[in-house]
Amino acid sequence: MPAGERYHDRVAGWLTGFAVLWSLLGMTAGVYIAAELVWPTIDFGQEWLSYGRLRNLHTNAVIFGFGVSALMATAFYSVQRTCHVPLFAPGLAWFVALAWQATLLAGGASLLAGWTGGKEYAELEWPIDIAIAVVWVCFAVVFFGTIARRRIQAIYVSNWFYGALIIVIAMLHIVNSLAIPVTWSKSYSLFAGAQDAIVQWWYGHNAVGFLLTGGFLGMLYYFLPKHADRPIWSYRLSIVAFWAFTYSYIWAGPHHLHYNAVPEWVQSLGMIMSLVLLAPSWATMVNGVMTVAGAWEKLRTDVALKFIVLSLAFYGLATFEGPMMSIKSVNVVSHFTDWTVGHVHSGALGWNALITFGTFYFLVPRLVGAELHSTRLANWHFWLALAGVMLYVLAMWGAGVSQGLLWLSLDEIGELSFSFKDIMASMAPYYALRLVAGVVFLSGAVLMAINLWMTVKGRVIVRVAPPAVAESAA
Amino acid sequence: MTWFLFAGDMLVMAFMAGLAVWALWGSSDEAVEKTAGIPLDDERDDA
């Protein structure tokens, strides 16, 4: 190891800060649109404040702003350490970090201006899509370049998940974004009709799979052993789960298209592969829980570990609920209802956000070589987050199951028993509860932002070196 | 189409079975334990 060699952690620190800012922006937009569903006139007649535009800003800010910035931060932090070598091309890593933020800012502005490709989670128009692809390829160069220079033979399992995230998201984004531009702000998809729907949900579901699941599993497999101060319970199980996850997930997208104009066998294949996914998902959850087993006493004092263990519980819940909802006879009730919204948020808030919060409470103090500013504030955040996510999913389960059953209800002559308008009017209490849940969850995130800011204020990133004696084999 | 799907399913099963065998017996216990311990010893204390 060259003398004076240090890990490049500043870029991970800045990406962490960007992620926190995006979480506040994205969740605030989410709370505002939840309020619009309670008080529809609070768009004040402004197009940029309308539900249709703010909803896209909300999803893009939390997934690509908060989620991807956090994944880039933790990938850069952990890949160096698991390879015992500083980042490859650190200048390019800074370009990735800053260009990603610039691209998302431009994307957010374009969404508020009404530019949209009309595809869910892929609304951004073609100039932004090209910028995303360029930044993503640079991300791949830094990540895989670091792995190629590693000083130990084995590639740790977290890097397998981060690697899958980078490769698969590149493939999904480029293919689903293929379009013919007609102006700077408008393009039309290269695909049409049922093919367009299949490609869109091949993208949409695998973005959930390889970004919101696989990427965050990379975070879990690195940071959980660090928190628990013990290796993952079964490393072999983690490898089996990785391949089973990767092989099964890619087929599951068609469950978004049940009872639509796509071939029956495609729908059934999507359902079957979704059910198969239960095995690797729960294998990972069991592996995570068993890693903590024997270290439960740490939960009394380590607030970061509390977040991660709770996120595992929601991971188990969401990955059980998802395959159940893919069963066609269940989907006939759940589809097009708020049950789906509840499912998504049990994963996004309960799994993605909580594991990220837990990781940040661990990572940020280490980055600056200090104690967390306030454990008490972090504990308040934990309980607000738990209350927020529970209220949210309970409200949406109630709303969704009611909607599904009422819409399917027929009178004695076979006509709909209830009008759409009446059913939606009955949703008011659930939507009010969802708004409260959002405010509670956002309040916790604000406490975290204050806590982390007070932790880093006036401090600099400490320089950490790779282990003195690099392994030669593993 | 049914036979196509069946053959595809069998290929998936064969892949998964092969993977399980490889993961279980492809590496020594020592090598697996060493790899699992990577996150626990990845910084130099005296830096």
Keywords:
heterodimer; A: 474 residues; mainly alpha; Cytochrome C Oxidase, Chain A; two-stranded antiparallel ribbon; 71% helix; 2% strand; B: 47 residues; 2 helices; 68% helix; 0% strand
Describe the structure.
The complex is a heterodimer of chains A (474) and B (47). Chain A is mainly alpha-helical and 474 residues long. Chain A has 15 helices and 2 strands. Chain A has a two-stranded antiparallel sheet with strand order 1-2. The two termini of chain A are 18 Å apart. The model of chain A has no long low-confidence stretch (mean pLDDT 95). Chain B has 47 residues and is mainly α. The radius of gyration of chain B is 19 Å and the shape is elongated. The mean pLDDT of chain B is 81. At the A-B interface, helix 2, helix 6 and helix 7 of A face helix 1 and helix 2 of B.
Largest protein-protein interface: A-B, 35 and 25 residues
Can you tell me the residue ranges of chain B where pLDDT is under 50 for at least 5 consecutive residues?
Answer: none
Q: Helix/strand/pairing class of chain B, anyone?
A: mainly alpha
Mind telling me the CATH superfamily name of chain A? Cytochrome c oxidase-like, subunit I domain
Number of helices of chain B: 2
What is the SS-derived class of chain A? Answer: mainly alpha
Query: Which descriptor suits the 3D outline of chain B?
Result: elongated
Arithmetic mean of pLDDT of chain A: 95
Number of strands of chain A: 2
What coarse outline of chain A follows from CA principal-axis ratios? globular
Query: Biggest sheet of chain A, open or closed, and with what strands and sense?
Result: 2 strands, antiparallel
